[in-house]
């Protein structure tokens, strides 16, 4: 579950908000098969949640999002009632919530009270005003797209910020990488120019993946370790300017000679 963060903050201010949990629920496609909606006209599934109020000066009686019908019919989208084997609490969106693996958490509507199949996208503020972002594939930087798929992302867990490494040689580290598609490559750099490939564990479902790195240092001083993930479609984590820009950890290398 990857939170997108505040939709009114600049993308470079995003901080990782991600959890790796096990969901139990009813597949959404099963509920749709029972209700038998008109899928010739129904292009989206709207989900309503029982929270209301004001956000950034905009009032809403309900939180409402939508899913393209193709995503809604995929086997992994759930109406979930358990998290990690326990009944879903009110704080986590219970008694039932939508869970859309591989997509940002804003699409996993909490306190679910209504599902409907519609011909168009929702006209609510959370699909028209909020949770839309500039499309990085638009060369003019104007076109926007919905906040749906999680793009390749990563975090460095070890070394930790401002760790002091004593002695030249190899620095070993590890971290986690994730995205809507499986991560097939993670590269680690000390200078931003040359990149060494890390070992990446395979993905079983939609969980994050471990990576292990080993890079060589030849001098003492300050280093900035970066990690860059690439998914199986070839999409690569950007260096700057996006919510999923590569992480940087500053470390220090000291000589082991007195």
Automatic annotation (TrEMBL):
Q: List residues of the Moybdenum cofactor oxidoreductase dimerisation domain.
A: 148-244
Please provide, alphabetically and separated by semicolons, the GO molecular function terms listed in this UniProt record: heme binding; molybdenum ion binding; molybdopterin cofactor binding; sulfite oxidase activity
Cofactors needed by this protein, per the record, are: Mo-molybdopterin
Q: Which InterPro entries match?
A: Ig_E-set, MoCF_OxRdtse_dimer, Mopterin_OxRdtase_euk, OxRdtase_Mopterin-bd_dom, OxRdtase_Mopterin-bd_sf
Sorted alphabetically, the Gene Ontology cellular component annotations on this record are:
mitochondrion
Domain Oxidoreductase molybdopterin-binding: residue ranges:
2-125
Q: Which Pfam families does the protein's record reference?
A: Mo-co_dimer (PF03404), Oxidored_molyb (PF00174)
Instruction: Look up the record and give one Gene Ontology term from the biological process aspect.
Output: sulfur compound metabolic process
Keyword Hydrolase present in the record's keywords: the answer is no
Taxonomic superkingdom = Eukaryota
**Keyword Oxidoreductase set for record:** yes
Q: Which UniProt keywords apply?
A: Metal-binding, Molybdenum, Oxidoreductase
Enumerate the PANTHER family for this protein: SULFITE OXIDASE, MITOCHONDRIAL (PTHR19372:SF7), SULFITE REDUCTASE (PTHR19372)
- Protein name (record): Molybdopterin binding oxidoreductase
Q: Which organism is it from?
A: Aspergillus eucalypticola (strain CBS 122712 / IBT 29274)
Cite the source lineage: Eukaryota, Fungi, Dikarya, Ascomycota, Pezizomycotina
